[in-house]
Amino acid sequence: MWQTIKNIYNLGIKELRGLLGDWLMMLLIIYSFTMAIYVTAKAYPDSLTNAAVAIVDEDNSQLSKHITDALMPPYFMPPISITQGEIDAGMDSGLYTFVLVFPVNFQKDVLAGNGPEIQLNVDATRMTQAFTGAGYIQQIALAEIAKFTKGSETSLAKCVIRNRFNPNLTISWFESVMQLINNITMLAIILTGAALIRERESGTLEHLLVMPVTEFEIIASKIWSMGVAVLISATLSVLVVIKGLMHIPIGGSVMLFTFGLALHLFAVTSMGIFLACIAQSMPQLGMLFILVLIPMQMLSGGMTPRESMPQAIQLIMNFAPTTHFVQFSQAILYRGAGFDVVWKPFLWLAGIGAVLFSSSLARFRKSVA
């Protein structure tokens, strides 16, 4: 027993030394847990910001001016007054994202209850601003009309919305953690799979097989060494990049997240070994990696809530480690959940990891027989 542990430890140290000597892999790890997370989180604006608006006011009434004045920074740039004939030229040249047109007798028709229409022209090539800004303008216009016709907004029934865990709907809070989750799974599979294939291509795997070590010790050493490399990198990324550099609040315990991460790494590194046993070269591993990883990430619940997926997909994805990883990561890092909430995903990952490890060991023994 002691000799088995010693062999696993020494072989794992050999893998870590090989990883440290592979500058390309080290560069991939550093980039994946630093710049990739920062760039992804900051690539999208947190909300509508400085959208260009033009106004065609054919009514010149008090109500149209109230609505125009309500389009304020930081959501919108100061509105520019243009004529009807300048709309097409301005939007074709990209000067305006929105053009709001008030018809003649707009205020008069509102007070008479005739239901006049305001025309909103949107440059839909600016996808994010077009979708969000159109809703903002509609809400602002309806609120100003309500205040104007009722005299005071306090006389209206209000729906008070409270956003929990992310009060300002800051998109970087979500994108940074989800990018970290995706990168962890990606690197764990790549590193373990590449470690096995690299030894097979260089011929050192045959040297190991004639030494007094077992297939179990070879597989276990690659799993713990690559898992530790990703575990340390991911934990530092949470503390230094996400929490320290980007000042994104972490709701729960980082230690609890690290414990769950270790279970997830046990499962996905075993999966990496299994894929490497099927593939005969790095290009084949890359093709298998794409076929396996993309569906797992898309259907894990990180991009779309699992409840919105068909029941059959939900059932199948219960056997994917990424589903439970996303579940407990969001619960801990976003909502501050404790062990009493996330013990079920932990149990699922332990079971999935045991099955994947057994399968990868059996496949490895078959491939070297």
Summarize this structure briefly:
This protein folds into 2 domains: 2-43 and 170-368, no CATH class; 53-155, abc type-2 transporter like domain (abc type-2 transporter like fold). 67% of the residues lie in helices and 4% in strands.
Structural class: mainly alpha
**What Rg do the Cα atoms give?**
28 Å
Average pLDDT across residues? 87
Major sheet: arrangement of strands: 2-1-3-4
The helix content, as a percent range, equals 55-70%
Query: In percent, how much strand structure appears in the residues?
Result: under 5%
Work out the number of β strands: 4
- What is the number of helical segments per DSSP (H or I, 4+ residues)? 15
Q: Report the order of strands and helices.
A: HHHEHEHEHEHHHHHHHHH
Largest sheet: 4 strands, mixed
Cα(first) to Cα(last) distance is 24 Å
Unreliable stretches (pLDDT < 50, length at least 5) are 152-157
Outline type: elongated
Number of domains: 2
Q: Please, could you describe this protein's structure?
A:
With 369 residues, the chain is mainly α. The protein has 2 domains: 2-43 and 170-368, no CATH class; 53-155, abc type-2 transporter like domain (abc type-2 transporter like fold, 3-Layer(aba) Sandwich), CATH 3.40.1710. Helix content is 67%, strand content 4%. It contains 15 helices and 4 strands. It has helices at 2-21, 23-32, 35-42, 62-70, 87-92, 106-112, 127-150, 171-202, 204-209, 215-245, 254-278, 282-298, 311-317, 321-334, 339-368, and strands at 53-57, 80-81, 98-102, 119-122. The chain has a 4-stranded mixed sheet with strand order 2-1-3-4, covered by helices on one side. Helix 4 (62-70) links the parallel strand 1 and strand 2 (80-81). The longest helix has 32 residues, at 171-202.
